[in-house]
Design brief:
2 domains; 41% helix; single chain; alpha/beta; three-stranded antiparallel sheet; 316 residues; TIM Barrel; eight-stranded parallel sheet
Length: 316
């Protein structure tokens, strides 16, 4: 390990080589991706948000078989079958849980009683303080650039990380708009102890998302994603026919119920998992503009780390 990171709180706490965490993204982060990232020295996460309880259990078992390194599960707390998910996580002795989209106070103590490390995702320093008070072990501070569900405040990572760093004492993991080692270094200079990366890991063979979606991400340019659906839960989407429908509905002033009807059921699966680039919901971050190729997860980890080390050596 690089000597600069010998005392890094994230690598020590999770017992990993690099402070690089792969986000638990819906329709992308199954056991193949999580185990590949963990085997490469980062921390892989299984994304439970798009899984039924029995599917989550299957992925955890397969991930255990594929790696002897630490891995975790990302669990949106608003999930309707949350109790069943938690039961499986505890039963399978998953060592680490990243929670999001809900109140960490509800389940953190249960996880801690079962010796599970808990990290919570926030989009503001106020929520970071509440999560710390709830007893979580670390914070993911996710900026406005991130793909998928996002903070309504639209606070960028550049502003959010120092604000959260000043607000809490526990480790801070930066997320949103990070895909390179240079960006990782910038986040750590701002006060982060590590980084969580989503979009870059979508474009790997191990990600379970559809190849057509991965290719659309690789072809994306600056300005090809925008935050939308703020009335029902802000989400960053790649522009397509569905996005245009949403935009027109928002400009018309459609209410929450009308937007929910437009969204319907299974729209994210249709886009990201089944590859319908027209009618599907395509969640990806702004940093897609910097992603130029699909490559194995282990190579992505190595590339980010090498880029980080090279950036460290450059004079300012």
């Amino acid at each position: 390990m690089n000597h600069e990171l010998q005392n890094n709180r994230i690598t020590q706490f999770f017992n990993i080589n690099y402070p690089i965490i792969q986000a638990g993204m819906i329709w992308a982060s199954g056991w193949k991706l999580a185990s590949a990232v963990s085997n490469a020295g980062g921390l892989g996460l299984i994304g439970a948000g798009s899984m039924y309880p029995d599917v989550l259990k299957e992925h955890i078992i397969k991930c255990k078989a594929a790696t002897d390194k630490p891995f975790g599960v990302n669990l949106p707390l608003m999930y309707p079958d949350i109790e069943k998910h938690i039961e499986i996580i505890i039963e399978q002795k998953v060592p680490i849980v990243f929670t999001s989209a809900g109140n960490p106070k509800t389940w953190t103590n249960i996880f801690k009683q079962n010796k599970i490390k808990v990290v919570h995702v926030v989009s503001s320093s106020v929520f970071a303080q509440k999560a710390e008070a709830a007893g979580v072990d670390a914070i993911v501070a996710e900026g406005f650039e991130a793909g998928g569900h996002n903070g309504r405040e639209e606070t960028t990572t550049l502003v959010l990380i120092p604000a959260v760093r000043d607000a809490v004492k526990i480790p801070v993991i930066a997320a949103g708009g990070i895909a390179t080692g240079r960006q990782m270094l910038a986040a750590m200079i701002l006060g982060a102890d590590g980084v969580q990366i989503g979009s870059r890991f979508v474009c790997t063979p191990e990600a379970s998302s559809h190849l057509s979606f991965k290719e659309a991400v690789v072809n994306a340019k600056e300005g090809d994603t925008l935050l939308s659906l703020k009335k029902i839960g802000a989400v960053r989407l790649l522009k397509n026919d569905f996005f245009n429908e949403v935009r027109e509905a928002e400009l018309r002033g459609d209410d929450e119920e009308q937007l929910k009807n437009l969204l319907g059921r299974g729209r994210a699966k249709k886009g990201m998992f089944e590859g319908d680039l027209h009618a599907g919901e395509l969640e990806i971050g702004q940093v897609s503009a910097l992603i130029k190729e699909i490559k194995p997860a282990a190579e992505v980890v190595k590339e980010i780390w090498n880029d980080f080390e090279n950036a460290l050596k450059k004079p300012i």
